[in-house]
User: Which sequence fits this backbone?
């Protein structure tokens, strides 16, 4: 018997709340899968009640619940399936999983994002609520209450289960497994769409790539400013009443900028990989090739635990910022002089003959940029000296250790702006310079200091990147557009 959609909403809400509440209870209980009193609780693997045994509740999180005995309460599975071949005194609940009933359930059968299968010996004393799935019922199965079915596109949630277990729990969008083949097909379809965009809008992609390559720090800053301003723009459109009609267009514009930005970020990665080759190709072929090479690298990185989702988010920020910043430079051409870009100029190309650059690097900055890059160990020694210095100063001031990193970032930003180095850098003969030359301004110093937290958050991978990068740049160097060079002995810093 079918029920109206509005009758399904309270049942769906009840199922989600019940699953979340019992999942929290399971997390606080016994995580090893053993019995706690008369309850069987399991996390990260299945929970089973054998035939002839009884329990108050059987709960599993990230696993399947199998009841062959007698449960006085409920049988629940979150991100798994529920199998009831025995009896339950209350409900059988599966959140993002299916229910297979071939016994007696005194209460309701509630399933969200999964299928319900009733065997020939199934007896359900309450109702069946099937949310975004399908119901398979044996002719001899008995359901004493109503049947509420809301079909959806997730009728088979096995692929979703596999993605959660092999990708989401590992912090990555993809996994080297056929169980998540649908995610790979989605990724390949998205890649094909990106290639199409690169072929149709090749000049725009290359121009944004140039912006990202020459101004990575300002691109990130543009993305952050755009995210902060977007709610203000929406509020202003609502206040004006007339502007409400423009809200959908505003969201579409942001979506297009985000999609185009990912194409730009992937093309930028591809251009860096292809920079060692000097093949003469057309602009269309070059842009498409960069996107293809960058996409292969991105797909490989997406399979790395933790780093996969981090790369996914970082590409979105970099690309979106590059698009926004390029639009700003297009709207205000005078800003190109400060950024080092001229209209139509691409990364890695020389300016046209006779063209002048308003703000070129000073000779001393060019000389510094030509100095040898500082390696991993010497930079870590300088960082250790600064850390000890800041920690000692905070200890004298009776500050807690939790402020050390914040104070260290502030100290570094001030020293980089004023002297181009820190005390540790002076001891180790190091200096921070901009890749394009010119003085290290406050914006670059602050962005570099904040980006250090990004280099630190993923197990310090951003700092270890110094050892494998061709220019010995850390992640915060790439974001700020800086390098650390070795200054010859006898050259003054002050």
Assistant:
């Amino acid at each position: 018997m079918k029920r109206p959609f509005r009758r399904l909403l309270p049942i769906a809400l009840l199922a989600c709340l019940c699953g979340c509440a019992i999942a929290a209870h399971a997390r606080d209980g016994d995580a090893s899968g053993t019995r706690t009193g008369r309850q069987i609780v399991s996390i990260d693997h299945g929970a089973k009640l054998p035939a002839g045994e009884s329990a108050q509740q059987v709960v599993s999180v990230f696993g399947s619940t199998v009841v062959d005995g007698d449960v006085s309460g409920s049988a629940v599975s979150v991100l798994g399936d529920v199998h009831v071949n025995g009896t339950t005194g209350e409900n059988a609940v599966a959140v993002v999983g299916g229910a297979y009933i071939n016994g007696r359930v005194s209460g309701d059968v509630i399933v969200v994002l999964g299928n319900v299968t009733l065997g020939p010996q199934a007896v359900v004393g309450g109702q069946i609520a099937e949310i975004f799935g399908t119901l398979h019922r044996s002719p001899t199965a008995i359901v004493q209450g109503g049947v509420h079915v809301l079909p959806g596109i997730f009728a088979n949630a096995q692929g979703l289960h596999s993605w959660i277990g092999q990708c989401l729990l590992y912090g990555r969008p993809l996994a080297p497994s056929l169980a998540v083949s649908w995610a790979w097909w989605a990724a390949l379809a998205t890649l094909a769409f990106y290639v199409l965009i690169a072929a149709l809008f090749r000049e725009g992609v290359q121009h944004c790539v140039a912006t990202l390559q020459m101004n990575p720090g300002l691109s990130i800053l543009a993305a952050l400013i755009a995210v902060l301003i977007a709610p203000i723009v929406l509020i202003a459109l609502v206040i004006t009443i007339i502007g409400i009609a423009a809200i959908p267009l505003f969201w579409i514009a942001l979506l297009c900028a985000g999609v185009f930005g990912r194409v730009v970020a992937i093309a930028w990665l591809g251009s860096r990989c292809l920079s060692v080759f000097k093949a003469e190709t057309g602009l269309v072929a070059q842009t498409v090739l960069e996107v293809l090479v960058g996409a292969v690298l991105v797909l490989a990185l997406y399979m790395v635990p933790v780093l996969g989702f981090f790369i996914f988010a970082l590409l979105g920020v970099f690309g979106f910022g590059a698009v926004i910043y390029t639009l700003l430079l297009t709207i205000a051409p005078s800003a190109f002089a400060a950024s080092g870009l001229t209209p139509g100029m691409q990364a890695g190309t020389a300016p046209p003959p006779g063209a002048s650059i308003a703000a070129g690097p000073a000779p001393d900055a060019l000389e510094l940029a030509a100095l040898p890059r500082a390696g991993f160990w010497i930079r870590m020694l300088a960082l250790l000296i600064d850390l000890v210095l800041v920690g000692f100063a905070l200890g004298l001031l009776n500050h807690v250790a939790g402020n050390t990193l914040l104070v260290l970032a502030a100290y570094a930003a001030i020293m980089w702006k004023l002297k181009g180095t820190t005390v540790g850098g002076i001891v180790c003969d190091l200096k921070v310079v901009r890749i394009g030359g010119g003085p290290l301004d406050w914006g670059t110093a602050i962005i570099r200091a904040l980006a250090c937290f990004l280099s630190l958050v993923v197990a310090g991978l951003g700092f270890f990147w110094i050892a494998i990068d061709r220019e010995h740049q850390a992640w915060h160097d790439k974001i700020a557009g800086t390098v650390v060079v070795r200054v010859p002995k006898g050259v003054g810093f002050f």
In short: Residues 1-15, 20-37, 278-282, 334-366 have pLDDT under 50 and may be disordered. The chain has three domains: 5-156, 181-339, 363-486.
